[in-house]
Design brief:
- The structure holds two protein chains of two kinds.
- Chain A is α/β, with parallel strands linked by helices.
- Chain A has a single domain, classed as Response regulator (Rossmann fold, 3-Layer(aba) Sandwich), CATH 3.40.50.2300.
- Helix content of chain A is 42%, strand content 19%.
- A five-stranded parallel sheet of chain A has the order 2-1-3-4-5, sandwiched between helices.
- Chain B has a single domain, classed as Chemotaxis protein chec (3-Layer(aba) Sandwich).
- Chain B is 35% helix and 34% strand.
- The chains are: A alpha/beta, B alpha+beta.
- At the A-B interface, α1 and α4 of A face α1 and α3 of B.
Chain lengths: 124, 158
């Protein structure tokens, strides 16, 4: 499975990569530091799962998600948002933009695994 | 100058305790609150986040080098020996998590705020200034890996 993790923090990208490897989703992990860079990476790569932060410079996660969801090529690509934005209205905004699931930082490996399994349809 | 209300300080105290304990497995104990002008605490690295909305100002999460290295080592699960780009990034992310957690508490109380992307300042024995006219409180914490502090500078927004 190929995953892209998008976060302006190299620390968070490292933690997410290490966690993905630990929970069995570490086959191939691409990285991007913001939404614009992610769009460029996705031009040349097909992925099975997108994990994105919200607050990022250049192009934030919400704009990225809206851009991706406007392209039918990505209709079936699940998106998980991993962010510090934990207010109820923020979660609703992200879900309306096309995010499939939502994780508030900091998170445990179990939470990431559960959310991935949910968006991949491996769990009810 | 207006005083900072407890309702505006507590979310940041609780967020700092919770985030440091969760991500770095370090229990911290709150010290005595101090007005910024009365405090002479100096630090080596600070994560700073701007706040806008119904409250306006900034928060700064500050560490002496020794505390920062111990906390970042636990946070990323790898040994960190100096203040390099990884340490700077990790302190920014920790500050982001603290601000995000406090933002949720504000939201639950019906107060809407927005938080900026973190900036990180590195420099031996620096202090973080707050804008003139903005009340500022320093909350020190102690832990088994050293001291740290959060500075909350906020006033009502427009």
């Amino acid at each position: 499975m190929k995953v892209i993790t998008i976060d302006d923090s190299s620390t968070m990208r490292r933690i997410i990569k290490n966690t993905l490897k630990r929970i069995g989703y570490g086959d191939e992990i691409l990285e991007a530091g913001d939404g614009k860079e992610a769009l460029e990476v996705l031009e040349n790569n097909e992925v099975d799962l997108i994990i994105t932060d919200w607050n990022m410079p250049v192009m934030d996660g919400l704009t990225f998600v809206k851009t991706i969801r406007a392209n039918s090529k990505y209709d079936d690509t699940p998106i998980i948002m991993v962010t510090t934005e934990a207010a109820k209205e923020d979660i609703i905004t992200a879900l309306k933009a096309g995010v499939n699931n939502y994780i508030v930082k900091p998170f445990t490996p179990d939470v990431l695994k559960e959310k991935i399994e949910t968006v991949l349809g491996k769990k009810d | 100058m207006a005083k900072l209300s407890v309702e505006w300080i507590n979310p940041f105290i609780e967020a700092t305790e919770s985030i440091i304990s969760t991500v770095a497995m370090v229990k911290i104990k709150r010290g005595k609150l101090a007005l910024k002008e009365d405090s002479t605490v100096e630090y080596d690295i600070s994560g700073i986040i701007g706040i806008t909305g119904e409250a306006v100002g900034s928060i700064a999460l500050s560490f002496p080098k020794k505390t920062a290295l111990a906390i970042v080592t636990n946070f990323i699960g790898e040994d960190v020996v100096g203040i390099d780009n990884d340490t700077i990034d990790a302190i920014g992310e920790l500050t982001n998590m603290v601000a995000g957690s406090a933002k949720k508490t504000f939201s639950d109380q019906g107060i809407r705020i927005k938080i900026s992307i973190p900036n990180v300042v590195v420099g031996k024995n620096h202090t973080v200034a707050s804008p003139r006219g903005t009340p500022s409180i320093i909350i020190p914490f102690e832990s088994n890996v050293g001291e740290l502090a959060i500075q909350v500078s906020l006033k009502p927004g427009a």
